[in-house]
Specification:
single chain, seven-stranded mixed sheet, four-stranded mixed sheet, binds iron/sulfur cluster
């Protein structure tokens, strides 16, 4: 049968050497439903990750990442280098060798029940490192347990995703929002389908993500749109931004945030491969723009701000909304953080506030 050799506890010959570092590997799985993808199922020791520097440098101090690697396969993905720890590469392996924390909800429930956590109940962010609603979530269904554990423990949380699978959990999220503050955001940066399918080949199209924003709003929840990253010379034209913001407005999004592309080492190399293949005419311009580091220079960021801010106003959109509790995408500190990145050479601010 199709699922034979997939029983829990079966050692798989497919386990890769670096994955031995995950001494909690349960099994390695391939299925016909996910052609070309290998899942490495592990028993996580912890579910909550503390952000280095905590809320002093980020709008949130804690994150949960049910998966490592992401089938959404965005060429600019900030998390790619994290796969090299497993002796997997930051390119194709990041897209197709997915580590799944199959017990994440159970471990989380124990962690958020601890007295220290219950005293503070800090906000938790999902979607800061890999996408919790990537396609694998359709198979593993880890998010419902995570949402319930957070809501039951009184923990505020935020979710940032490109996955339309978010719709599946809207009833749960709605119920959770009646018990704890919940912030939701969709990442939608590219509104040209051909370009989007080339840069983010594993993601749903902008139209489908916008429909998800509408579904979230119709469920009675707020939903921001992250236009991140804006790709220099590819998606920063007035026409593209105007077209994008008109659609964001029509979706009913509560607010919009944007920032220009970051290209940290490891990611830059992968992005450059793509540029060589798809837009060789832009290689020199990108080399010049990112010659001093991961962030586009101040001049570019100022130029982009001068172009996009009037368009945001024109479409009657707001840049974020104050939410002092959730640690989510709409907190004033999130907006301040994005502005800080836009205004400074913030290479030391790691990890990136969002991958998208
Ligand atoms: S940017 Fe986000 S959605 Fe895209 S591959 Fe990375 S984690 Fe996945």
């Amino acid at each position: 049968m199709r699922w034979q050799n997939q029983e829990l506890g079966v050692e798989s010959d497919d386990a890769l050497p670096g994955l031995a570092k995950l001494n909690n590997l349960v099994r390695t799985v391939r299925t016909p439903e996910f052609q070309g993808v290998t899942f490495h199922e592990i028993l996580a020791k912890s579910a909550l990750n503390q952000v280095p520097g905590g809320s002093k440098v980020m709008p949130y101090a804690w994150t949960i990442n049910p998966y490592r690697g992401c089938q959404h396969s965005c060429v600019y993905c900030f998390a790619r280098p994290t796969h090299t720890y497993l002796e997997l590469n930051a390119g194709k392996d990041f897209d197709s060798q997915i580590v799944v924390k199959i017990n994440v909800a159970e471990v989380l429930r124990r962690e958020v029940a601890r007295p220290k956590w219950q005293q503070e109940r800090p906000a938790v962010a999902l979607g800061t490192n890999t996408d919790p609603y990537q396609r694998a979530e359709g198979r593993y269904k880890l998010m419902p347990g995570i949402i319930e554990a957070l809501a039951d423990s009184g923990t505020p949380f935020s979710i940032l995703t490109k996955g339309t699978l978010l719709r599946r959990d809207l009833p749960l999220l709605k119920a959770a929002s009646e018990r704890v503050p919940v912030d939701l955001a969709m990442s939608i940066a590219i509104y040209d389908d051909e370009l989007q399918q080339s840069v983010e080949p594993g993601t749903p199209r902008a139209k489908e993500r916008l429909a998800t924003v509408t579904a979230v709003r119709e469920a009675g929840l707020d939903c921001s749109v992250f236009m991140m990253p804006i790709l220099p010379f590819l998606t920063d034209s007035t026409e593209h931004l105007d077209h994008a913001l008109a659609q964001v407005k029509a979706s009913g999004a509560t607010s919009v945030l944007y920032t220009a592309l970051h290209l940290k080492p490891g990611v830059k190399q992968w992005f450059t491969f793509w540029l060589e293949r798809e837009h060789p005419e832009l290689l020199d311009r990108y080399a010049e723009l990112y010659k001093n580091g991961a962030y586009a220079p101040k001049e570019y960021r100022r130029w982009l701000a001068a172009r996009i801010k009037p368009l945001i106003r024109k479409h009657g959109l707001t840049r974020g909304r104050e939410d002092p509790v959730t640690g989510g995408v709409e907190r004033r500190r999130s907006i301040r953080f994005v502005e800080q990145v836009e205004q400074t050479d913030a290479a030391s601010l790691q990890p990136q506030p969002t991958l998208f």
